[in-house]
Amino acid sequence: MLEVSRPYYLYDKPCDMRKSFNTLGALVTGQMGLALLSGAGFVFINKRKTHLKMLTWEGDGFGLYYKRLERGTFEHPNSGNGYELSYEKLLLILRGIETNKIEKRKRFSLHKTG
Q1: CA distance 81 to 10
Q2: How far is CA 4 from CA 22, 50, 96, in A?
Q3: How many domains does the chain divide into?
Q4: Backbone φ and ψ of 91, nearest 5°
Q5: Which of 15, 35, 42, 110 is the most exposed place for a label (fewest CB within 10 A)?
Q6: What is the number of other CB atoms lying within 10 angstroms of the CB of residue 11?
Q7: Whether 47 contacts 74, CB under 8 Å
Q8: Largest CA distance in the chain
Q9: Residue 107 falls inside a structural domain
């Protein structure tokens, strides 16, 4: 489900984890103003930061990834660039690494990355 080439967007408010495909999709289109069928990954974190859901369009249907932590919390970063979330930052969030203290060194890239 996680792909390097896929864009990711983090919903900037706490999300009720009882929401499923349709209501998460409504947040994407209504609140975030993004195209639901774009192939992007849309990430949602609950108020206690113990649950994370990711909704993706996979060409023939929606996929829903759900992770519940038994201990600890997810970081819910304020990106400053809207809802965009880089693949690398998403991996760090899933692994429990605080991204505010990490500095990414410059590297050559054909396309602009976050």
Answers
A1: 11
A2: 25, 24, 19
A3: 1
A4: -60, -40
A5: 110
A6: 21
A7: no
A8: 42
A9: no
Indicate the pLDDT class of residue 99, thresholds 50, 70 and 90: confident
Please state, in angstroms and rounded to a whole number, the distance separating the CA atoms of residues 92 and 102.
10
- Token digits of residue 60: 């023939």
Residue 85, in any domain of the structure: yes
- 89, amino acid identity: K
pLDDT above 70 (res 53): yes
Q: How confident is the model at residue 50 (pLDDT cuts 50, 70, 90)?
A: very high
pLDDT digits 0-9 by tens, 56-84: 999 899 999 999 999 999 998 875 556 89
* pTM, two decimal places: 0.85
User: Quick one: 6 exposed, middle or buried, by C-beta within 10 A (0-12, 13-18, 19+)?
Assistant: middle
Assigned domain for 63 exists = yes
| Cβ within 8 Å of residue 107, ≥6 positions away | none
Query: Encoding tokens for residue 75?
Result: 């970081």
Q: Residues 28, 36: contact at Cβ < 8 Å?
A: yes
Q: Is residue 111 domain-resident? A: no
pLDDT exceeds cutoff 90 at 15: yes
